[in-house]
Amino acid sequence: MWQRFRSDPVRRLRERLDRFGAGHDPRHLLDAGAARDAEAVVDLVSATEPTAPLPERTAEALFLLACLHWYRYQVLPAGRDTDDLAQAVTLTRLLLHAAPDRVPPSLLALYRAHAPADPARVPGSRAPEAGRATSTDAPAALAMQAVLLMGDAERTGRYAAADRAEALLRRAIDVTPPGPERATYLSMLGRVHRDQFRHLGRSRALPAAIDAHRESLESTRADDAQRPTRLFNLGNVLSDRFEVDGDPATLDESRGLLREAAASATDPTVRALASGVLGQVLRHRWRIHARPADLDEAVDAFGRARPAGDPRLAALHGIVLSERFLRDGSPADRDAGIDALRAAVGADTPLDAELAGPTWGGLAALLEDRYRADERAPAAGADLDAALAAYRAAAGATGDDALRHQVGVLLTHRYERGGDAGDLAEAVRLLRAGAAAADDPVVRGRRLADLGYALARGRPERGAVDAWRAACDALSEAVALLPPGDPARHRSLNNLGNSLRERADQGDDPDLLESAAEALRAAVAETDPRTPADYLSNLGLVLQARFAVTQDLATLAEAVAVLADAVEAAPPGHPARAAALTNYGAALNRRAELAVDDTRPAATGAARRDTDAAVAALREAVALADPTDPQEYAQSGGSLATALFLRHRTTGDTAALDETIDLLDGLTRAGPLRPADRHRALTNLGNALLVRHRATATATADDAEAMLAAYRGAVDALPPEHPDRTMCLSNLATALEATTAPGDAPDERARAALREAASVPAAPSSLRAVAAHRAARLADLADDLPAALDGYATAIELLDLVAWHGMDPDDQARLLARFRGLATDAAAVAVALGDPRRAVEVLEYGRGVLLTRAHDATADPTALRAGAPDLAAAFTAVQTELDGFRPAGADTTPRPAGGPPPERRHALAERRRRLLAEIRALPGLDRFLRPPEFAHLAAGCGPVALVNVGERRSDALVVAAGDVTVVPLPEVTPAEVAARTAQFVVAVAVLTGQAPPVTEPAASRRVVAARAAVGRTLDWLWRAVAAPVLDVAAPPGEPGEWQRFWWCPTGLLTLLPLHAAAPLDGGPGVLDRVVPSYTASLRALDRARRAVPDVPTPVDRALVVSLPHTPGLPDLPGAAHEARIVRGHLPYGGTLSGASATADAVVAALPGQPLVHLSCHGRQDLGDPLAGHLALSGGPLRVRDLWRPSGGAAALAVLSACETAQGGAALPDEVLTLGTAFQLAGFRQVVGALWSISDPVTVQLCADLYDALAVPGGVDPDRAAVALHHAVRGLRAALPGRADLWAAYAHLGP
């Protein structure tokens, strides 16, 4: 186990003896260094052939050895000087024989005084028996020859001479009787056998060595000065045997011998050797038994050995200290290990190659650990540099590519600290080489993980997108190679997610955010439940970025929750706390921004709570930020400024606004900032200055100039393709508009900025659409109508990406609300340009987006299957999974099996978009699921009046016989429609008991006024809309001849009863000219028409849902009467009533039903039409619950409930009603109510309706429009002056 230590020979021993002669200090003769120097000289002498005359250098060496032993004999006390006297006499005798001229008189006198009379004997030895040996055959001479042979073997590496040495020693042993001399020769023989074992590979030599050393020890008296040495020798070879057979018993015996040797040795060299090997033995025991006491004793043993000055002992001491550090994590052990290993590598004598590598490697690892333990410590940089130097030395000593790889890892760290591009370049080179050299897949995976991290560290201003792409490639391969549970795998996933986010942030591809989220989710999952705070923080950051692109509120909610967990996982003092707080505050800011303009008390309160929490978190983050790191400080400081700005907007706190401006101004003046941080800071500064500029009481002349400079600086900080450029350009346009004097024409610079903003492909679609819409409005105001139409059309085209397929309907509705009036303004401009067909197209494309998208899900893929069956299968699978998603609002029942989790929706939508692009590239499929052109829209259609209410003009676009006729409606304006709608809704609420109660006589006066308001509304609708339209599209015919006619109103006009419009004087109205129906769009009408059978087929069964009693609501006794009426015509089919009429039961029963009749309470929410519902047992059946295509074909749904045909004031053009929801569920004909209806009146209507539907064998559902027309006219006749009772009923369908 123990290797011979080599040092400089003759010169060092001569200098040592000179120092003794100068001061007579015995330490120069007795310390461990003297023994090492003497041993090295012995090696030199032993390497010389035993012939005379000796070479001069060898003779000098022999002389110096003799002097050393004579001096030691003189200074050692009696009883401890015997060995040195014997050695001195033997060496002098050899010198007299081989180089007599080197023996000075003084040395000769000493020899004569102490040499025995028999020159064949040395002091204390026995003379050979007579006739058995000559002087050269004397045991001492034989032993000396053996020593010389083994010395030569060690010098040349040719150990074949060991056999000759063995023979010489056996001869010496054979002729030497038991006693000290024989024990010495046995010890020498044991060493020769050990060399035979180690160098000649003779396994039998090791037991022989053990036997020789054991016999030598057994022959040594307890008080013999050589006993500690012989204890050491036996313990040493027993440790060799353990390395062969692994027998713990052998190790235990070795430990006992070495303990005794170390404890009893008076010679420091022997004590050091014994302690060193004991340390090795104890280290072996630690590795076998994992007993802490063994490792602790090993540390102590090596510590006792170190005063000998042997650098090997320092190295081994450092190694076991590092092992104990790994066990206990004690910084004291780590620091002591560093000191020991530094002493080892810093010694004058270099370490053996076998030990140099582990020593440098261990030192590097400990320095690296100390650096990583506190990278902000004052000495951290020095530790990092020292660790790098140590790894380089270790790699040089061993050639180990793993160590060179680690150099690359630490160079990456140093680059992050100092930004030296040379460090990063060398790191990437070394890490690439390390990955290329790895044969084992797991090793390659770990090295690729390090390479990917390094590649992603490049500064963005250096064009790092390519490096991030390379990083993603490396990290993706690493993830694929590494097995689950490998720590490098979750680190790779985390770094992959970050790199993908950076690529998306730099404009590479926004879709990468989905992959980034998936990678970071996997990283979090693989470390759960002890998820690192930085992983959670990174996931939250990506979710925020995804929300910016997708506008999916579920994603933002998840981001806030994840980042709250990140803050909790990073308590005070945690290195990741600052980043977690910054990201958490930023997410709260985003959520507050959504609610800041919402005037509802609940939304305002939520925004204030989020803002307060954000300010608190971000103030702490700023306090924790490293002021020397501009990027870190900019992120936390910039987010704090945003939170303060939002506080001002929610509370009006001017101090918060001023602090915002001061903070952002300081950030933008400090530098250098990354372009990404700089443009955000400048953007937020511009936003704050804009608010202060608009607040005339606090405006300053400088604010406008500073605001424009900030916004222009933000634009200039970004390349043309950067996704944030759209936001920055839009902000600049806002500032330019704000500085335009009232009454002036729109600033052309603002229009140009918005046009450019809309054209950035990588920007979020919602921002691009808003920019295009704004640009169109400015062009419209400037009477640049072609540019206006182009802008409106661009915004409409982007709606498909804004409210993407698969997004939660609530989120789609929220986003579409930003574009109120877009389609109608576009149509008005198209009409003004003389292109009514284009007007029809933009109305179709820009209205009813949600309904059209839902219908598209059931598009017939026959042509696609014929041309591309694989694409058809893939598209159908994606569409099916998207349609299986249950909206977030419908959380009262479990999500259907097979539906995607929320985080998959955007990925599926992107997959669908890519498949569509592939499909449309195929011959003959370029129009697959594209909005149809006018010729297709108008084919077989009509007459349909699209009543467009626009700011520029209002018209009815009557589509019939493949053409369109424009009917100007000059009395109809958005403002007039809004006022009329408000009056009508209030009047109906009074007449149907929905308004707050008042006492008499005010109540009676209010009723009279409400009936008058209803009459005025119907009269205005007749004069302003219906009469002009019908005069052109449906001139009066013969009495009793009823022409079918469809209304498709826009805007708030959807809330008014166009079908019941009539003059106040009692003259003919709409019901007297046509059979009126409604349609949400031309496409919806076309789909419903295509479902009508060519030959009318009677229906004899229906699903009846009847709830005469609903807890908490007024009873509906008429519901039971209606059920009997329906069953009188349709005897077959199921009935759900009472407790069985639940929402789930109704939805489950709808498929396969040709007709459904629901008699229950209904309610619409004008502010949230998706929340409109039927009140069923156990809970509501809402619009959003039905907002999924069924793929089935049903005939008629009679919704005998209040407000089932009423849309919403928030999204009137989306026609989000229970009626359209039932059309989505497959019912082509729907009868519903525009407002609250009377229970007894509805019973009468039901009887008249089904009587008119009746045919032999059941009912004809496709007579629904005519039957309802008949029934309503009957009610009108029975209830004159009570339009509130009869005019609510409406028909939807073909």
TrEMBL record:
Domain CHAT: 1016-1293
Chain intervals for the UniProt region annotation (Disordered): 885-906
Cross-referenced Pfam families: CHAT
InterPro entries: CHAT_dom, TPR-like_helical_dom_sf
Gene3D superfamilies: Tetratricopeptide repeat domain
Compositionally biased tracts (Low complexity): 886-896
Protein name: CHAT domain-containing protein
Organism, scientific name: Micromonospora sediminicola
Lineage: Bacteria, Bacillati, Actinomycetota, Actinomycetes, Micromonosporales
